[in-house]
Amino acid sequence: MKKTVGFILVLVMTVFCGFSVCAVDNAPADYTVSASQTQLSVGDSVTITITINAVKAIGRTSASVTYDTSALTFVSGNGATDQGGVISIELPNGLGTTAVLSLNFTAQATGSAAVNVTRCSIFDAFDEAYNIDGSKGVSVEIAEKTEATTTTEETTPTSPQTDANGVPTQGVLVDLKVDQGSLIPPFMYSIHEYSLTVPYDVEKVEIDGKTASTQDHIWYTGNPECVVGRNVRTITVTDVNGNETVYTINITRLDKDQQETKPTDTNDPAALTSSPDDSKSAVTTTAKKEKNIKDTLLPALYIVLIVLVVALFIIIMWIKNKASKKKKPDDKSDKQRSKIKVSGSNTKKKKK
Fold first, then answer.
1. Is the pLDDT of residue 344 over 70?
2. CB of 200 closer than 8 Å to CB of 253
3. Structural domain boundaries in the chain
4. b/e for 135-169, b at 16 or more Cβ within 10 A?
5. Which residues contact residue 336 at a Cβ distance below 8 angstroms, ignoring those fewer than 6 apart?
6. How far is 235 from 177, CA to CA, in rounded Å?
7. What pLDDT score does 187 carry?
8. What DSSP character marks residue 162?
9. What is the pairing mode between strands 173-178 and 229-238?
10. What pTM did the predictor assign?
11. Across the strands, what pairs with 211?
C-alpha cells in the first residue's frame, strides 16, 4: 500500500511540474540590437535600440547592458539606470507584442566600442517571467573629429547637434500625440514606427507632432478618417539641410464584433484617470484574464481529480481487504467454541 500511495504522489507532482513547464515555454521571444550609426567621430551621438518581439503580450521588460566606458558616455534611456558601465533597464510595455528599448550615448574617445546585452527578460500580463537566451550586441567605430574649414561666406547659424538630454535639436519629432488611444510603444524621438488600436465607434483619429526646431518642415500623409482594419499615417520631418525622418503610425480600427482591450500607459498621467470607457476596457481585460486562467487550469485540475478518485478507490479497497482479514480468525474461533460445546454435550450423555 505504501508503494501505491507513493506512486500516486509522484504522478500528481509530475502532472503539476509538466503543467508549469508548459506555461513557461508558452511565450517564446527574441530580440535584436542595432545602432543608429556605426561610424562616429568624437563628440557624436549614437542611439542603441533593443527590439524585442514575442508571441504573447509583453507586460514589462527587464535587461542588462554593458558598454565601453573609455570610449562612450551614457546620456539617457527609457527606464535605464547606469551603474558605471552596466545599465539596468526596467520598463513597462503596455501589453504589446513588441518592446523597444533605446539607449543614447556620446562618443568620447577614438577606437572601437561595443555595447552588449548580457541579459534580457520579458514579463507577461500575470508578471510571469520569460528569459530570452543569448547575449547580443553591436560595435561602433569612433574616429577623430575633423575641423571644418572656415570660409568668408555667410552661413546660417546652426544649433548644436543634441541637447543636454542627447536629443537632436533638428530633424526629428520631440512629441507625438493622438486624440484616441495610446501609441505602442510610447513615443520616443528615435522610434520611428508605432501601432494604435481603436474601437469601432472611433471613425477619425487626429495626430499632432512637434518638431525639434522651428526651422524643421513637417508633412502628414494618410486620411484622418479610419476604415475598419488597417490604416497607415506618416509624419515626415525635414531639417534645413534636407535630411528627412519619417514616423509611421499603423492604426487598426476594430469591427463591430471585436472588443478592444486598452493597454495602460503608465507614463501617461491621463491614462490613470478613470472614465466609462476605461472601466469597460478594464472589465473586458479582467474577463479575458479569467478565461485564460480557466482554459489553462481546468485540464490540470481534471487530471488531478482523476488521480485522487483512483487513489481513494485504492484506499477503500485496501481498508475493505484489511477488515475481511481481521474477521476470518473470529469465525474460526466461533467454530471451535461450537465444537467444544458439542463434544461437551456428548460426554455428559455418555456418563449417564
1. no
2. yes
3. 167-264
4. eebbebebeeeeeeeeeeeeeeeeeeebeeebbbb
5. none
6. 12
7. 93
8. B
9. unpaired
10. 0.39
11. 173
Residue 68 C-beta-side C-alpha neighbours within 13 Å: 18
Angstrom distances, CA of residue 92 to CA of 10, 202, 243, 279: 39, 26, 32, 21
User: 52 near 141, Cβ under 8 Å?
Assistant: no
Please tell me which residue, 231 or 283, carries the higher pLDDT value: 231
- Tell me the pairing of strands 244-253 and 193-198: parallel
Orientation angle between helical segments 276-351 and 2-24, nearest 10 degrees: 170
Residue 116 contacts residue 13 (beta carbons within 8 Å):
no
How far, in Å, are 32, 145, 166, 240 from residue 148 at the CA level? 36, 9, 22, 19
Q: In a 3-state reduction of DSSP, which class is residue 246? A: strand
At 263, which amino acid appears?
A: P
Cα→Cα distances 281→92, 196, 198, 352, Å: 19, 15, 12, 105
* Cβ-contact 143, 110 below 8 angstroms: yes
User: Using CA atoms, how far apart are residues 28 and 14, in angstroms rounded to an integer?
Assistant: 23
The matching CATH number, chosen from 2.40.10, 1.10.150, 2.30.29, 2.60.40, for 167-264 is: 2.60.40
Over its C-alpha atoms, the chain yields an Rg (Å, rounded) of 36
